[in-house]
Queue: 4 jobs
Job 1
Amino acid sequence: MRKKILLLLLTLYIFVSCDQFGTSVNRTPVNVILGDASFLLAHGRFPDELTNEEERVKSHLMFVEEQLRRSSPSDLSARQRTNRSKMLDLLHSYWNKGEFPKNDGHPDPRRPCFIDKEGNICAVGFLIQETMGRELAEEINRDYKYSYISEIDEPILAEWAKENGLSLMECAMIQPAYSGMGNSDDNYIPTGLALSTALLSGTNIALSTIGGIERCKGNPNRGAPTVGIFSGTSQMVLGVLSYPAGYADFNGNYMINESQQVLSMVNIGVGLGTIILSSYYLLAKKKPKPSATAWNIYGFPSPGNQVGFGLSLRTKILDH
């Protein structure tokens, strides 16, 4: 009964942990209005934990630039049209450079960040900086660092947008929500995967060790090897399911999460090793205990005054 409960709990933990791979910052849309439409159109799927953060923000800004160029309002003045075109050119240079801020202090996993601690400025902030100066951008940052456009109560923002042929709605469409420091790393390892690996590795090493000790003692207990086969299979499946998919960046270079790739191969290797050892402990025949054999030839009188001979053989199992 205890073995069944252990197997059930182990299975439940693995499935929950595997589900955590997708429960991350990347399930939060990159934009409050457009969501992840840009990434879906570009890749045919929604972003996940393995999605490169820089590529995701770039995809959004490229998409917004294209949409705004196609949908210029008809009631703009000549000056506004000229300024709007310059704004979109600036936006193009911004995403092409790829120096984006990070959510360096807000508790939400993904949030707008006007200017981060390293001085990296957001897309809308960059447009303000290039047309109105860095001082105004920093002034907005002091009061509205992690605010969405709709939350920024600064009349000058609306005036600036109108002067440059943009609406506040279009500014909100431009504004990305950025991920935190840890989650923007190409070699980020999901917490669920790390915990599952630690639990299964410790369990499998312990089971293999116990099985080896019992084997050396000649103990017929089959509990540890049986659980070891299941646990080893679980870890190997975990490694296969969590193996990261590679992708090509904007320059055509092949990219992959190397840290998660190594961890997945470790899971596959440890799991397979545990299966092999546990199977050996179950299937290998029990070694016979060492014994000592003593024999003796002796004589005895037989009928007719003749002498008979006898042989005695005695075997003793030795205990250590």
Job 2
Amino acid sequence: MPGRSKYSKKKSENLKRKSESQKRKKARSSAKKKGGSKKRLLKEEKHYEYSELESPDEKKKIIDKILEIYPDERLDLKFSSPFELLVSAIFAAQAKDEVVNSATEKLFQKYKSPEDFANLKPEDLKDYVSKINFWYKKSQTVINVSKEIIEKYQGKVPDSVDELVKIKGIGRKTANMVVGGAYGKPAIIVDTHLMRVSQRLGLVDEGLSPEEIEFKLKEIVPEEVQTKFSFALIRHGKKVCHAKNPDCQICELKKLCRWYKASFKYT
């Protein structure tokens, strides 16, 4: 069996050389990445925990600062009634506000009330909303919601989150959006932007559900500014604190931001 032994030894040596070559390539690749990180503050592949700030004073400073930076923000969705905002919010799930606005501009010229939508079929709305993601399913939800508002609320959109979430197809984000955006009542609107920014700033812990974030923020944000605060944080998420490559260098909140401080230590 000497021939087989010689072959096995040669094969083993080849595998070893290949493994060492792969390690060297990996090391060079890693070195390039580290060198590139000097040019940018944050690296996308790094993970930093979003842990909640312990000091109430620090949280208050953040809340006051965000309201100072964005004092008069509004929703990007266009509407002229609570029902129109409700419809727009349903269509806006996983869709861009500008696409929804473009569709509803024509849609609301023909259909304005729950009574207008209640007897429709999704196909009746296709010409208006077909460019919106999942338009068929969302159209069916709008129609069903319209029927329920007529049957249970005499055609008037409820002005409380507790009542709105009783309607099938309406979640807490949409309910808070209508209550805060259309009725001007206190509301914490937890969309993806508010969720991300509130965690990065350290106002809430990472890993909380949208509902947990809503109630946590209600504890620390004064009731009279909760809706304004929501609009401000959403705007900051869209404008500066992006999911990928947040623009920390121009951020006016960076000196207060726990995520920025933790990230800065690694660069």
Job 3
Amino acid sequence: MKLPIHILALLMLVACPKPEDEPAVFEYPYAIGIGNSPEWSINSDTIVYEKDNDIYIFDLSELSNERVFENGRDPSISPDRQSITYEWDKQIFIRNLNTESITNVGPGITPSWSENGEWVAYANATAHRKLSNGSTEWGYPSPDSSLYYYSIDTQEIHRVIVENFPQLSGTRQYSMSQPEWGRGDSLLFLGTEEGIWMVNREGGNAARYDSLSYYLPKHGQSAFDEFHEFGQASWSQPLEALGYTKYQSTTHGSEYYIRLWSDDRFSVNADRFSGHADFSWSPSGKMGVAVEVQSNEIYLDSLNLKVW
């Protein structure tokens, strides 16, 4: 006896259920919601972000948002998705999502969880950060501004000494801010008017990215971003690539772009990221998430990278 087509289709769906880890289907770019400081988890299906001083998690497999707790900024989620580190009132905290226990690490801002889950990096409260709406949150930069990392296992705090970073000169004050984990266990950070730097977790001399080239597909040529135009940076381990916010002042106000750079010199359709800031790579490097400055809407998008 032949079964009707719709019965056969139903039986096939039951016999071949959708894998649990298969992401939901959506069109790019996808609007996650209003918020700031989005960051991708290492497992690729979770994005944590801040909205109105509350911390939210976006589940990529379900395309759903969940408010997990209040009173937090600049969140970063652990690789096992069990804990979130964040800043509140110039203090660094770690919150276990299962037990609701909270650890106060100490004074600091802009924390970032390492990919191996062992450390949380942050800047001290004298540093500052560039917000996606174009304003700057200051903690009064001073010559003692520093980077630190907190060991999850030992609960010890370590200062990262950058030996070749400029010191106080006349009335100028240099600061290190917005640390993110870079190549291996190195740290990316912003230096006031000094570009993007990368230094080993144990300290020493840092490599400085003070003029980065990128490709303009429409014009078939390369251009350069100067160090004073750099904003928040993000590193892709599988691509060995840097993503960063470029901002510049014009007669019409500030303009924002996301640039992607590597030694292999690949390009991305920059029009898709015009007017965006706070970029974060997906673990695979095939997608990115960023905040549209004008609307504060967080967008998820594919990158479609091309080597040139």
Job 4
Amino acid sequence: MRSNQLSYWGIAQKFIQKTGPNQLYASSANFESMTTKSQSRPRALITGASVGIGMELARVFARNRYDLVLVSRRADALEAVAGRLEGEFGISAATFAADLGDAAAPGSILDFCANEKFTIDMLVNNAGVGLGGEFGESDINRQLNIINVNISALTHLTGLFLPQMMLRRSGRILNVASTAAFQPGPLMAVYYASKAYVLSFSEALAEELRNTGVTVTALCPGPTKTEFAATAEIESTRLFNSVVTDAAGVAEFGYQATMGGKRVAIPGMMNKIVAQSNRFTPRFLATKVVRMLQENR
């Protein structure tokens, strides 16, 4: 687990090299000014930040001078991402290893931020899991974990950090949904349903918050080049052997949409067309098309 103290030590080393040890104590006021600058930057909390879209979102926020709180199950990978971003962009990146499938994880994340005195200006609920195959033949525990991570943890984290934003009348929430949110998904039934929840929840919340200074954006990417297809066991499907989007482009698009206060953001013209076409396509037909795409080649 990484704290902002690491970044302050890095600042201290640079300061000593520049001023020399004899001037260090005489120049303590300057050092205080440098650390205050670090603390004055906005801070984004990003879940699922060790790989894929989450990692790319962390890069985009760091490039735009946000300090970060990065959350993922993979502590080592998270530390590596934080170190790279601190070195490249000169921001502070704290890490917290947590499995969002555990109901206690969101509360632990809030406690960590409170103990570190972090103000969260941007909440990015990116972490998500999926599983391909027939629901009746699948591991029910893995299916329930999809609900725990994609729905319960996202809702819990939003409920924990939103009141602070409302009190400040300032803040942004980015929930990563999917184009899967726009129709049922045979052979990935629970995942598609979970993303429909994320989209519906985000749109409803955005309307509730329209006069509060807090915005909510649902990012709905299509198939994207990440580890998701492998972990969800859908690498051989027609869907993931068609047009697949670059994760960095999705992250940049999501950032710009969030900063612009957009409620629903769908990257890519083809994804927009597919999402909108479901408004006019009979539901049974859309479901059959999705099943065909979710089947192996």
